[in-house]
Design goal:
This protein is of the alpha/beta class. The protein is built from 13 helices and twelve strands. The protein is globular.
Length: 338
Protein backbone atom coordinates (compact mmCIF):
# COMPACT_ATOMS: atom_id res chain seq x y z
CA UNK A 1 0.00 0.00 0.00
CA UNK A 2 2.83 2.37 0.94
CA UNK A 3 4.57 1.61 -2.36
CA UNK A 4 1.35 2.28 -4.28
CA UNK A 5 0.80 5.61 -2.56
CA UNK A 6 4.39 6.66 -3.22
CA UNK A 7 3.98 5.83 -6.89
CA UNK A 8 0.72 7.77 -7.05
CA UNK A 9 2.28 10.79 -5.39
CA UNK A 10 5.26 10.62 -7.73
CA UNK A 11 2.98 10.44 -10.74
CA UNK A 12 0.98 13.44 -9.50
CA UNK A 13 4.13 15.47 -8.94
CA UNK A 14 5.32 14.55 -12.44
CA UNK A 15 2.05 15.77 -13.92
CA UNK A 16 2.26 19.03 -11.97
CA UNK A 17 5.85 19.57 -13.11
CA UNK A 18 4.95 18.80 -16.70
CA UNK A 19 1.99 21.17 -16.55
CA UNK A 20 4.22 23.95 -15.23
CA UNK A 21 6.45 23.53 -18.26
CA UNK A 22 3.58 23.70 -20.74
CA UNK A 23 3.18 27.45 -20.44
CA UNK A 24 0.33 28.91 -22.46
CA UNK A 25 1.79 32.43 -22.44
CA UNK A 26 5.27 31.20 -23.24
CA UNK A 27 4.04 29.32 -26.29
CA UNK A 28 1.87 32.23 -27.45
CA UNK A 29 4.72 34.73 -27.14
CA UNK A 30 7.13 32.37 -28.83
CA UNK A 31 4.72 31.82 -31.72
CA UNK A 32 4.12 35.51 -32.45
CA UNK A 33 7.83 36.29 -32.09
CA UNK A 34 7.69 39.27 -29.73
CA UNK A 35 6.68 40.23 -26.19
CA UNK A 36 3.78 42.65 -25.65
CA UNK A 37 4.18 44.70 -22.46
CA UNK A 38 1.98 47.26 -20.76
CA UNK A 39 3.75 50.53 -19.90
CA UNK A 40 2.76 53.74 -18.11
CA UNK A 41 4.47 56.43 -20.16
CA UNK A 42 6.21 57.90 -17.09
CA UNK A 43 9.76 59.34 -17.24
CA UNK A 44 12.23 56.96 -15.64
CA UNK A 45 9.90 53.99 -15.96
CA UNK A 46 8.73 53.94 -19.58
CA UNK A 47 8.87 56.66 -22.23
CA UNK A 48 9.52 56.93 -25.94
CA UNK A 49 12.84 58.61 -26.72
CA UNK A 50 13.63 60.92 -29.65
CA UNK A 51 14.15 57.88 -31.87
CA UNK A 52 10.72 56.49 -31.04
CA UNK A 53 12.21 53.70 -28.91
CA UNK A 54 10.98 52.71 -25.46
CA UNK A 55 13.35 53.41 -22.55
CA UNK A 56 13.09 53.18 -18.77
CA UNK A 57 13.32 50.83 -15.81
CA UNK A 58 10.04 49.02 -16.60
CA UNK A 59 10.99 48.82 -20.27
CA UNK A 60 14.27 47.15 -19.32
CA UNK A 61 12.30 44.60 -17.30
CA UNK A 62 10.32 43.77 -20.41
CA UNK A 63 13.44 43.73 -22.59
CA UNK A 64 15.12 41.39 -20.11
CA UNK A 65 12.35 38.82 -20.52
CA UNK A 66 12.57 39.13 -24.31
CA UNK A 67 16.34 38.59 -24.13
CA UNK A 68 15.84 35.50 -21.97
CA UNK A 69 13.20 34.09 -24.33
CA UNK A 70 14.46 35.02 -27.78
CA UNK A 71 18.09 35.94 -27.16
CA UNK A 72 17.04 39.35 -28.51
CA UNK A 73 16.00 42.17 -26.15
CA UNK A 74 14.56 44.20 -29.04
CA UNK A 75 11.64 41.82 -29.59
CA UNK A 76 9.32 43.99 -27.52
CA UNK A 77 6.19 46.00 -28.27
CA UNK A 78 4.62 48.40 -25.79
CA UNK A 79 1.10 49.53 -24.96
CA UNK A 80 0.60 52.71 -22.92
CA UNK A 81 -2.03 51.88 -20.31
CA UNK A 82 -3.86 54.07 -17.82
CA UNK A 83 -4.13 53.02 -14.18
CA UNK A 84 -7.74 51.99 -14.76
CA UNK A 85 -7.08 49.98 -17.93
CA UNK A 86 -3.89 48.15 -16.99
CA UNK A 87 -5.40 45.11 -15.26
CA UNK A 88 -8.09 44.57 -17.89
CA UNK A 89 -5.42 44.60 -20.61
CA UNK A 90 -3.51 41.83 -18.85
CA UNK A 91 -6.60 39.81 -17.97
CA UNK A 92 -7.87 39.90 -21.56
CA UNK A 93 -4.53 38.87 -23.09
CA UNK A 94 -4.05 42.21 -24.83
CA UNK A 95 -0.60 42.22 -23.21
CA UNK A 96 1.61 39.35 -22.07
CA UNK A 97 3.09 41.15 -19.10
CA UNK A 98 2.26 44.27 -17.12
CA UNK A 99 5.53 46.14 -16.64
CA UNK A 100 4.03 49.37 -15.38
CA UNK A 101 5.06 50.67 -11.91
CA UNK A 102 2.24 48.68 -10.28
CA UNK A 103 1.96 48.30 -6.50
CA UNK A 104 1.94 44.72 -5.27
CA UNK A 105 -0.95 44.18 -2.83
CA UNK A 106 -2.82 41.22 -1.35
CA UNK A 107 -6.08 42.22 -3.04
CA UNK A 108 -4.46 42.44 -6.45
CA UNK A 109 -2.83 39.04 -6.00
CA UNK A 110 -6.04 37.34 -4.89
CA UNK A 111 -9.01 38.90 -6.72
CA UNK A 112 -7.93 39.77 -10.26
CA UNK A 113 -6.64 36.47 -11.58
CA UNK A 114 -3.23 38.14 -11.72
CA UNK A 115 -0.11 37.87 -9.58
CA UNK A 116 2.88 40.06 -8.78
CA UNK A 117 6.22 38.62 -9.85
CA UNK A 118 8.64 40.63 -7.73
CA UNK A 119 9.70 44.17 -6.88
CA UNK A 120 11.84 46.17 -9.30
CA UNK A 121 11.35 49.49 -7.49
CA UNK A 122 10.62 50.27 -3.83
CA UNK A 123 8.75 53.54 -3.49
CA UNK A 124 6.46 55.50 -1.18
CA UNK A 125 3.52 57.79 -1.80
CA UNK A 126 3.97 61.49 -1.17
CA UNK A 127 2.46 64.92 -1.74
CA UNK A 128 3.78 67.75 -3.87
CA UNK A 129 2.99 71.37 -2.95
CA UNK A 130 4.15 74.81 -4.00
CA UNK A 131 7.07 76.07 -1.89
CA UNK A 132 5.34 79.43 -1.53
CA UNK A 133 2.63 77.75 0.56
CA UNK A 134 5.30 77.12 3.21
CA UNK A 135 3.74 73.77 4.08
CA UNK A 136 6.14 71.49 5.96
CA UNK A 137 3.82 68.70 7.06
CA UNK A 138 0.78 66.87 5.72
CA UNK A 139 -1.18 67.89 8.83
CA UNK A 140 -1.06 71.49 7.53
CA UNK A 141 -3.12 70.35 4.52
CA UNK A 142 -6.28 69.71 6.57
CA UNK A 143 -9.20 70.70 4.33
CA UNK A 144 -7.00 71.02 1.23
CA UNK A 145 -8.03 70.18 -2.31
CA UNK A 146 -5.86 67.34 -3.60
CA UNK A 147 -5.53 66.01 -7.14
CA UNK A 148 -5.31 62.21 -7.35
CA UNK A 149 -5.75 59.54 -10.00
CA UNK A 150 -8.98 57.53 -9.60
CA UNK A 151 -9.13 53.74 -9.30
CA UNK A 152 -5.65 53.48 -7.79
CA UNK A 153 -4.13 52.44 -4.47
CA UNK A 154 -2.95 56.07 -4.41
CA UNK A 155 -6.54 57.24 -3.99
CA UNK A 156 -7.19 54.69 -1.23
CA UNK A 157 -3.93 55.46 0.60
CA UNK A 158 -4.71 59.18 0.60
CA UNK A 159 -8.11 58.57 2.17
CA UNK A 160 -6.66 56.17 4.76
CA UNK A 161 -3.84 58.53 5.73
CA UNK A 162 -6.07 61.55 6.23
CA UNK A 163 -8.87 59.65 7.97
CA UNK A 164 -6.51 57.92 10.42
CA UNK A 165 -5.17 61.32 11.48
CA UNK A 166 -8.52 63.07 11.76
CA UNK A 167 -7.81 65.23 8.69
CA UNK A 168 -10.13 66.08 5.80
CA UNK A 169 -9.50 66.83 2.15
CA UNK A 170 -11.41 67.47 -1.06
CA UNK A 171 -10.38 65.06 -3.84
CA UNK A 172 -10.17 66.06 -7.49
CA UNK A 173 -10.16 62.80 -9.45
CA UNK A 174 -8.24 63.10 -12.71
CA UNK A 175 -6.68 60.21 -14.66
CA UNK A 176 -4.38 62.13 -17.00
CA UNK A 177 -0.96 63.24 -15.71
CA UNK A 178 -0.87 66.42 -17.80
CA UNK A 179 -4.27 67.47 -16.52
CA UNK A 180 -3.30 66.80 -12.89
CA UNK A 181 -0.25 69.03 -13.16
CA UNK A 182 -2.18 71.68 -15.08
CA UNK A 183 -4.72 71.84 -12.25
CA UNK A 184 -1.90 71.96 -9.73
CA UNK A 185 -0.17 74.87 -11.48
CA UNK A 186 -3.44 76.76 -11.92
CA UNK A 187 -4.20 76.55 -8.20
CA UNK A 188 -7.27 74.37 -8.67
CA UNK A 189 -5.53 71.80 -6.45
CA UNK A 190 -3.47 72.67 -3.37
CA UNK A 191 -1.47 69.45 -3.72
CA UNK A 192 -1.06 66.39 -5.90
CA UNK A 193 -0.32 62.90 -4.64
CA UNK A 194 1.32 59.91 -6.27
CA UNK A 195 4.37 57.69 -5.81
CA UNK A 196 7.32 59.91 -5.01
CA UNK A 197 9.42 58.66 -7.93
CA UNK A 198 6.52 59.21 -10.30
CA UNK A 199 5.97 62.73 -8.97
CA UNK A 200 9.67 63.61 -9.06
CA UNK A 201 9.90 62.50 -12.68
CA UNK A 202 6.72 64.24 -13.77
CA UNK A 203 7.41 67.54 -12.01
CA UNK A 204 10.59 67.90 -14.08
CA UNK A 205 8.77 67.37 -17.36
CA UNK A 206 5.27 68.74 -16.75
CA UNK A 207 5.78 71.81 -14.55
CA UNK A 208 7.00 75.08 -16.07
CA UNK A 209 9.09 75.92 -12.98
CA UNK A 210 9.83 72.66 -11.15
CA UNK A 211 12.10 74.41 -8.63
CA UNK A 212 9.03 76.25 -7.29
CA UNK A 213 7.64 72.97 -5.99
CA UNK A 214 8.61 70.42 -3.34
CA UNK A 215 7.64 66.90 -2.31
CA UNK A 216 6.85 66.67 1.41
CA UNK A 217 9.11 64.31 3.34
CA UNK A 218 6.31 62.25 4.89
CA UNK A 219 5.44 58.89 3.34
CA UNK A 220 1.74 58.14 3.00
CA UNK A 221 2.29 54.46 2.18
CA UNK A 222 4.62 51.69 1.14
CA UNK A 223 4.74 51.14 -2.62
CA UNK A 224 6.53 47.95 -3.72
CA UNK A 225 6.32 48.26 -7.51
CA UNK A 226 6.82 45.46 -9.97
CA UNK A 227 5.60 43.46 -12.96
CA UNK A 228 2.47 41.32 -12.98
CA UNK A 229 1.37 38.31 -15.02
CA UNK A 230 -1.74 36.16 -15.23
CA UNK A 231 -2.20 33.43 -12.63
CA UNK A 232 -2.12 29.76 -13.58
CA UNK A 233 0.92 29.90 -15.86
CA UNK A 234 3.83 28.99 -13.63
CA UNK A 235 6.39 28.75 -16.42
CA UNK A 236 5.75 32.32 -17.54
CA UNK A 237 5.67 33.52 -13.93
CA UNK A 238 9.07 31.91 -13.34
CA UNK A 239 10.64 33.33 -16.50
CA UNK A 240 9.67 36.87 -15.53
CA UNK A 241 10.61 36.38 -11.86
CA UNK A 242 14.02 34.93 -12.65
CA UNK A 243 14.78 37.53 -15.29
CA UNK A 244 14.53 40.14 -12.52
CA UNK A 245 16.59 38.02 -10.12
CA UNK A 246 19.27 37.49 -12.76
CA UNK A 247 19.70 41.27 -13.11
CA UNK A 248 20.00 41.66 -9.34
CA UNK A 249 22.39 38.74 -8.95
CA UNK A 250 24.52 40.08 -11.80
CA UNK A 251 24.94 43.41 -10.05
CA UNK A 252 25.85 41.74 -6.76
CA UNK A 253 28.54 39.64 -8.44
CA UNK A 254 29.87 42.55 -10.47
CA UNK A 255 28.74 41.23 -13.86
CA UNK A 256 27.97 44.06 -16.27
CA UNK A 257 27.06 44.41 -19.92
CA UNK A 258 30.64 45.54 -20.54
CA UNK A 259 32.51 42.74 -18.74
CA UNK A 260 30.10 39.83 -19.17
CA UNK A 261 32.24 38.09 -21.78
CA UNK A 262 35.31 38.34 -19.59
CA UNK A 263 33.29 37.04 -16.63
CA UNK A 264 32.64 33.82 -18.55
CA UNK A 265 36.16 32.88 -17.40
CA UNK A 266 35.32 33.40 -13.72
CA UNK A 267 35.95 30.53 -11.34
CA UNK A 268 33.15 31.70 -9.02
CA UNK A 269 30.51 28.91 -9.15
CA UNK A 270 27.68 31.45 -8.71
CA UNK A 271 28.88 33.44 -11.71
CA UNK A 272 29.29 30.25 -13.72
CA UNK A 273 25.67 29.26 -13.04
CA UNK A 274 24.30 32.72 -13.84
CA UNK A 275 26.15 32.89 -17.16
CA UNK A 276 25.40 29.32 -18.19
CA UNK A 277 29.00 28.11 -17.99
CA UNK A 278 27.66 25.47 -15.63
CA UNK A 279 24.78 23.90 -17.57
CA UNK A 280 21.25 23.24 -16.33
CA UNK A 281 19.87 26.57 -15.09
CA UNK A 282 17.84 27.22 -18.23
CA UNK A 283 16.29 23.78 -18.66
CA UNK A 284 13.62 24.06 -15.96
CA UNK A 285 12.55 27.45 -17.32
CA UNK A 286 12.20 26.07 -20.82
CA UNK A 287 15.12 28.27 -21.94
CA UNK A 288 18.68 27.66 -23.03
CA UNK A 289 21.51 28.14 -20.55
CA UNK A 290 22.48 31.52 -22.02
CA UNK A 291 19.19 33.15 -20.93
CA UNK A 292 20.78 35.25 -18.14
CA UNK A 293 23.91 35.96 -20.17
CA UNK A 294 21.69 37.41 -22.91
CA UNK A 295 19.87 39.62 -20.39
CA UNK A 296 23.09 41.02 -18.96
CA UNK A 297 24.82 41.41 -22.33
CA UNK A 298 21.90 43.23 -23.98
CA UNK A 299 20.12 44.99 -21.10
CA UNK A 300 22.64 45.08 -18.25
CA UNK A 301 22.41 44.35 -14.56
CA UNK A 302 19.88 46.08 -12.31
CA UNK A 303 22.29 48.86 -11.33
CA UNK A 304 23.08 49.66 -14.95
CA UNK A 305 19.38 49.81 -15.73
CA UNK A 306 18.64 52.06 -12.75
CA UNK A 307 21.50 54.47 -13.50
CA UNK A 308 20.45 54.74 -17.13
CA UNK A 309 16.72 55.19 -16.41
CA UNK A 310 16.60 57.13 -13.15
CA UNK A 311 20.00 57.56 -11.60
CA UNK A 312 23.28 59.29 -12.30
CA UNK A 313 23.21 58.72 -16.07
CA UNK A 314 19.64 59.98 -16.49
CA UNK A 315 18.08 63.47 -16.48
CA UNK A 316 16.24 62.58 -13.24
CA UNK A 317 19.32 61.93 -11.07
CA UNK A 318 17.23 60.11 -8.44
CA UNK A 319 19.15 58.60 -5.54
CA UNK A 320 18.71 54.82 -5.37
CA UNK A 321 17.76 54.88 -1.70
CA UNK A 322 15.86 51.68 -0.87
CA UNK A 323 16.66 50.39 -4.35
CA UNK A 324 20.31 49.86 -3.53
CA UNK A 325 21.46 46.28 -3.15
CA UNK A 326 21.03 44.74 0.30
CA UNK A 327 24.84 44.68 0.56
CA UNK A 328 24.79 48.49 0.23
CA UNK A 329 22.02 49.22 2.73
CA UNK A 330 19.06 48.85 0.36
CA UNK A 331 16.28 46.31 -0.09
CA UNK A 332 17.23 44.81 -3.45
CA UNK A 333 18.05 41.17 -2.79
CA UNK A 334 18.42 38.81 -5.74
CA UNK A 335 17.48 35.18 -5.20
CA UNK A 336 20.20 32.60 -5.91
CA UNK A 337 20.43 31.31 -9.46
CA UNK A 338 21.32 27.74 -8.53
Amino acid sequence: MRKFLSSAVAATLLCVASGAQAGVTFEAVKKKGFLQCGFAGIPGFSVLDSKGEWTGLDVDMCRAVAAAMFGDASKVKGNVLTAQAKFTALQSGEIDMLSRNTTQTLTRDTTLGLIGVGVNFYDAQGLIVKKAMNVKSVKELDGATICVQPGTTTELNLADYFRSRGLTFKPVLVENYDENFRLLESGRCDAYTNDKSNTAANMRTRLAKPDDWEILTENLSKEPLGPMVRQGDEQWFNIVRWSLNAMLEAEEYGITSKNVDEMLKSTNPNVQRILGVTPGMGKNLGLDDKWAYNIIKQVGNYGESYDRAMGKDSPLKLDRGLNKLWTQGGLMYGWPVR
